[in-house]
Amino acid sequence: PKPNMAAAASATVPPPPPPPPSGQALHLISALSNPEPAAVHVQALRARDEALSASAASYNELCRQLAYCLAGCDPTSQLLLWQRIPAAELESWRQQDPHTVARLQQDGNLLVPFGQMAGLVLKNALVRPPLRPDGQSYMALEGPPAEMIKETLLYTLGAQSLALRAVASSVIAVTAVSPPPHVQPALHLRQWPELVPTLLESLQSAHLDGSPRQQGALATIQKMMEDGPTQFDAEALDHLVPCLLRLLSPAAHESAQLPALQILATCVALKSLPGALILHFSSYLSALSALAPSPSVAVRTWVAKSLVSLLHYRTEYLQDHLESVARFLLDCTAQTQSVELALEGTEFWLTFGTSLDEAVVTPPMMDTIRALLPQLVPYLLRNMVYQDDQRQEILARNEMDRQEDQNNNNNSNDAMKPVFHRSRAAQQSQQQPSNNGGGGANTTNSNIDTDDDDDDDDDGDGYEQDDENGFDDDDDGNEWTLRKCSAASLDALANLYGGDDILPALLPELERGLASTDPWIQEASILALGAIAEGCADEMEQHMNQLHPYLLNNLNAATVQNNTPNTALPQVSCIAAWTLGRYAPWAVEEVQTGRQGHLLAQVTEVFLRTLSSQNRRVQVASCSAFGHVVDAAGDLMAPYLENVFQALAPALSAYHGRSLVLLLQLFGNIADCCGPAIAEEMLPVIYMPPILQLWNKLATENPEHRTLLPLMESVASIAMTSGMSFQPYALECFDNAMAIIEAVQLVLTTSGETIENEEDADPIVCAADLLDGLVEGTTNNFPSLLASSQRYGQHFFSVVHSLCKHEISGVRMSGLALVGDLAKNCPSLLEPALPQILQVCVQNMDPIQPTVCTNAVWATGEICVRCQGNPKLLEPFAPTLMQNLVAILMGNGVGSGGRGSDIPGLAENAAATVGRLGKLDPNFVANDLSRFLMGWCDGLAKINDPTEKHDGFQGFIKVLYANPRSIQHATVNAADAVASILFAIITWHLPENILDRSSALLSGEYSFHPFPSSEYELGASIKGMIRDMKSFVGEDVWHSVVKGLPVNVRRLLREHYEI
To answer: Are 587 and 603 in contact (CB under 8 A)?
Structure first.
């Protein structure tokens, strides 16, 4: 039921004070408040728990007494408390705790924390109620006690004490909007119709002076809107909005303005804007404008927050007011004496540059912001300089780091997060486009806390996770600061407007900053230079011949010269490394064009020198930035690999903690980007022995050591890239990986508890991925490797089977990827275990676990390929496989509601696997073809991998000939089915770089490619199938199909297929 707004009439008079609490309740709170004596405190805890769990009556009574105590401890009620508490109750309390009673009577201020304790105990009792004695349900407020508690809480919202009001509003909010099943149904909005009217009545007071009751009501509404905005119905919000707009008057007290601003900002972010706010939106904007010059920094900050929220969620309402709004935010950005206000102002530019839909950003809006860039850009650059207090903290931390470095006391286990380089996912997305367009195992484990996203995206939004990508090291920790926001805003605006608009305002400031003798200004200027690297790349080319040596010199300053202690600010070298990484594509282009053929060698030399630095921050920044250089250079790094590995190998024993993690990431990155060159001649002898030595050392200390995770990921990439050159190290790596799985699985099993933290299984995931890398690297020689392992060779498949059945989805995902690659590279190994393997593949075809399902489908497809010529092997599983695959192709409720699934790679893998099943035996697929013909065509059209596309279409042709009537029954109109088949076929003719296939087909110049010459036989089969399909459906249907095709498609059919 909706809150009864008429109920406000009964709330025009403040409720009378509640009764005083009992002496027993007061004694309980005093004992809970005092940890000494310990015996009494423990006894009180036990008494509290017993009273709450003994019976429903006992639970309700104690909650009521706690509420009375909360209300009675307010300064306005204290006299009443001492006067109204019965003498016998007071005497009972005094006898049990005379010291506390005497102190409270002497100093009334002590009653406030006493009441806070009562309120917190009440909140815990309501939010985490004990089970009833029957164990079937939880305790809940009922009947008269519930009503009394409601009245008492509402009364306490008007308390003089802010602390007590805060507790009461918190109790109300957390129970009133708790999601189903509600923790306290009697206190939920649906069963408390007086709540919202009473709160609104407090806001409708003629006075705007921020009375305690008004503040209590606002605090409660604010918390309710934060915790459960959807719990309010439209009528309640429509009554609330006018009250809040009234409180935005400049005449209102700041204590009323601030929560009103916050609540309205929450309303703006709601999916459906309240009707009253739509109606009064001009009043809302006028109120924000009136508050913009407020003398209160807090109010101006929340005005800025509100405008940022409007820009993000309701851009259309700001289109006509953007100039005045932007000028206000520009002024906020300049207010560095108030960092929070400047940060909110800067958020506006970041939002404008990154978060807006192009459809709502009009050319006049773009012009408005463009006109402000000459003023804005210098502000952003100035705000990138560390504040004075930050400088002092950084200098102190630098000194601590220096002392630790000298003493070699770095701790390798300090708060280390698992970090994985981009190797597996990046390599497969580059070499196997099917990962996002059909085929390939998904090796990006969403259950592992990886840093892939940060490494991939640091050119765009990596400013928040600075320590992850080399930006700014970790001098700000994980705090989102004015400095980071300013850099990210400059980056975003540079990408949005380009160099022509950004550089005229920035370059003069940069020139002064880079030449400054103040290292903090210099550091901020280098940061700004890196921030514009992407958006202003073309325009900056003419300046890089001067700037690049400058950056190399600053990076080189981190190294020790002639055994002289380095006093340079390491932050300057760190940010120079980050910026060099951002400009790596320019340096590579200089080498490729021959303009500076030596430049890559020079950059590599400086980075290798800084990698020997003893400063942990320089190590981290250099590893991360050099990884970006390697990414950009690719196989151009091959001539320098010996020097690179000679420099990196000793660091494996010298680095610790985060530095070591990123160093291992760098090894994997080099393997991914440089390819087989890493295994030429004697190069593996340089780096593999120290890697294995580190592995054995760490695994001996602790098989769950977090540093083993990036180590195994790196070795997996090295093994996969090196091929047979990895053979000398393959057996030791295989045994080590199996040992990790065995040891960690033993720990998880013997604990006897359900695994709540999936990170506990991360070592198993990485070890399985390493085994997969060995399979891909050694290919058909993997059986020999398996046979040479005396310890684990015989148990390998039982381990693989257990991985595919593991309770952690990430482990299953990696296990299924391993199965697919085994089928692909050494299928003979799978034959003895094929029934069990197929069974677990079927069991894992559940789109609720997207990556697991994708890998299960892909692995099944690879098994189908290896069963060609022997369909009997798959015959027992074909019906169940088809049931799952059809459900995937048709969406089965997963996805956007249309035909097929929107899980990346899933529909493509399913289409390829169904094609491989059909190629093996058309009868496995043909009977139900009409059910999923359209979805199958959609999936086939998405496949990028040439082999999987070939197999998919070969199977499709066989199946369609086995059941041609499915065309007529697949949809109401047979022409739609024919068109779907044709569009799938036409994807063979699309250029590889076309992302939006639909637009490419429907419009533009004729750009279809000939059918691949390597697929001549398949092309001939498709041509024959189209002719036969035309004959089968008849001229009328065919004419209907052709009439609806774009001109380009008709031309393709006419010229290539002679139809």
So the answer is: yes
